């Protein structure tokens, strides 16, 4: 009965999900500790966030197999808040973040992540890969000084061995996740050989108790809201953008479809819960999600196991987890970088529009320089929109013919909107036209108010020279907008096509 329940709701392959979950749990420890230190809070605040967020999103989120927890994107946002107002204000901001994200999902706004253009997605993925890589390079420093000599050679040897195991073990067996084998084998080898290298325990102690329910110790008034509101809103947007783009990435890797709106709600519930249990907030984790998928984790059970295992590490197994060499985890993350980076983008130069390449590079560079994924994606979407507008503006044209009465008929093809309105005007010469002119919009779309103003302006041009303009085959949306020109044009409503807007079922 229990196995049937697990198989139906949590996992189609419990063995793979359990093993991949254990693998992810090992990789979560140093990440959570590092992000907590980056945010200026105790390592346990990051670990508690990884546990609570990972557990909640695995149960109620919209993307089985995706791993969530404390992330660098959130850590960058909250550092100033913690430094200026303290950790209690952080917990309050995290709860408000969750409320924002729940509202985002309830209003079914998750579908809009599908509007992110592919060049932006490629830039996001490549930027994340470079951020992970740079994060690992920083591990070659101790107290601000680069590691050199024998310690450096030891680290490089351990990293190379770890990467070799992950790369070549699947050629011999796929019974166990290669990453889990690499972590265990690398750790045991370092212990048996007595190699002097840094371990997780050298970064911070991860020993702690069960996270306790805790209402933030702040004044619940307007002043507090003013302090936490901008941070909460930023965290909500950054978290949702990273989570929903990671959802798309996992969709591509697994050839399945997640549910953006449900994931938004799941992220919101998770952040609300973690704020009440002393966590720093977070979102989906690209690196850990890829580790999970590559290790065979596909179901909700993998995320649940990772979270529970992480809690067990904190409660009972901290001394053993602290023995894991940092170099082993660097090797794991280097392989994640190799698997995350979209190497196909290097072959796209000269094969796709230059503006698409510029957009992808811009997103990647902004991601690396600012660690602000929301800013990078927003800039990318704006660049893509401008690129689309620029391209579409020149693709509106007309075909001229005459009807039985000898009147000119112009069949418009393309899209009439703010960027193409001037070109649209240049296509017509009222002074040289017939007294009655018909414009057929059957193959065209008028998208915005600028389009309506362009039609109105054209009608006025014909009116000034004593001629009449007639419009045919306008869409229903365009007819609703045509208020400014309603006394100047004649609309044929009998053959107007009907256009439908995508509904929420996709989300």
Automatic annotation (TrEMBL):
The keyword Transmembrane applies. It comes from the Bacteria. Keywords: Membrane, Transmembrane, Transmembrane helix. CDD domains: STAS_SulP_like_sulfate_transporter (cd07042). It is a multi-pass membrane protein. InterPro entries: Membrane-Transporter-like, SLC26A/SulP_dom, STAS_dom, STAS_dom_sf. The chain crosses the membrane at residues 44-61, 66-83, 89-107, 119-137, 152-169, 176-195, 228-250, 299-317, 323-341, 373-390. SUPFAM superfamilies: SpoIIaa-like. The keyword Glycosyltransferase does not apply. Its main location: membrane. GO terms for cellular component: membrane. Residues 409-507 form the STAS domain. It is found in: Membrane. Signal peptide: none annotated. PANTHER family: SULFATE TRANSPORTER YBAR-RELATED. This is Sodium-independent anion transporter.
């Amino acid at each position: 009965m229990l196995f049937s329940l697990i198989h139906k709701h949590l996992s189609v392959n419990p063995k793979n999900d359990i093993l991949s979950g254990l693998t992810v749990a090992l990789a979560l420890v140093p990440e959570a500790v590092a992000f907590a230190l980056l945010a200026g809070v105790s390592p346990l605040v990051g670990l508690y966030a990884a546990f609570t967020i990972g557990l909640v999103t695995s149960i109620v989120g919209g993307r089985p197999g995706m791993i969530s927890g404390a992330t660098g994107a959130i850590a960058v946002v909250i550092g100033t808040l913690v430094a200026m107002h303290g950790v209690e204000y952080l917990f309050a901001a995290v709860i408000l973040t969750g409320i924002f994200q729940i509202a985002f999902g309830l209003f079914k706004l998750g579908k809009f992540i599908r509007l992110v253009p592919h060049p932006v997605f490629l830039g996001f993925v490549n930027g994340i890969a470079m951020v992970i890589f740079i994060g690992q390079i920083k591990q070659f420093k101790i107290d601000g000084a680069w590691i050199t000599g024998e310690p450096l050679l030891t680290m490089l040897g351990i990293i190379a061995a770890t990467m070799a195991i992950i790369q070549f073990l699947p050629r011999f067996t796929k019974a166990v996740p290669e990453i889990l084998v690499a972590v265990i084998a690398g750790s045991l080898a370092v212990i048996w050989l007595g190699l002097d290298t840094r371990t997780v325990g050298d970064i911070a102690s991860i020993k702690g108790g069960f996270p306790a329910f805790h209402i933030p110790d702040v004044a619940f008034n307007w002043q507090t809201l003013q302090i936490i509101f901008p941070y909460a809103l930023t965290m909500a947007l950054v978290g949702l953008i990273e989570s929903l783009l990671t959802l798309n990435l996992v969709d591509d890797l697994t050839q399945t479809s997640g549910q953006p709106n449900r994931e938004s709600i799941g992220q919101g519930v998770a952040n609300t819960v973690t704020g009440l249990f002393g966590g720093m907030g977070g979102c989906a984790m690209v690196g850990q999600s890829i580790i999970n998928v590559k290790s065979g984790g596909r179901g909700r059970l993998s995320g649940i196991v990772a979270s529970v295992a992480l809690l067990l590490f904190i409660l009972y197994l901290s001394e053993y987890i602290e023995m894991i060499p940092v170099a082993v985890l660097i090797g794991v993350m280097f392989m994640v970088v190799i698997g995350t980076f979209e190497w196909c983008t290097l072959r796209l130069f000269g094969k796709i529009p230059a503006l698409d390449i510029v957009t992808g590079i811009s997103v990647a560079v902004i991601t690396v320089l600012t660690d602000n994924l929301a800013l990078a994606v927003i800039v990318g979407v704006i660049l893509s929109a401008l690129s689309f507008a620029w391209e579409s503006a020149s693709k509106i044209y007309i075909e001229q013919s005459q009807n039985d009465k000898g009147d000119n008929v112009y069949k418009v093809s393309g899209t009439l909107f703010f960027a193409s309105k001037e070109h649209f005007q240049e296509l017509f010469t009222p002074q040289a036209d017939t007294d009655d002119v018909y414009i057929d919009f059957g193959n065209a779309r008028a998208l915005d108010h600028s389009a309506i103003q362009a039609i109105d302006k054209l009608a006025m041009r014909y009116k000034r020279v004593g001629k009449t303009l007639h419009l045919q085959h306008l869409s229903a949306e365009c007819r609703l907008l045509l208020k400014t020109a309603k006394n100047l044009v004649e609309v044929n409503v009998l053959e107007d096509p009907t256009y439908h807007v995508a509904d929420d079922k996709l989300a």
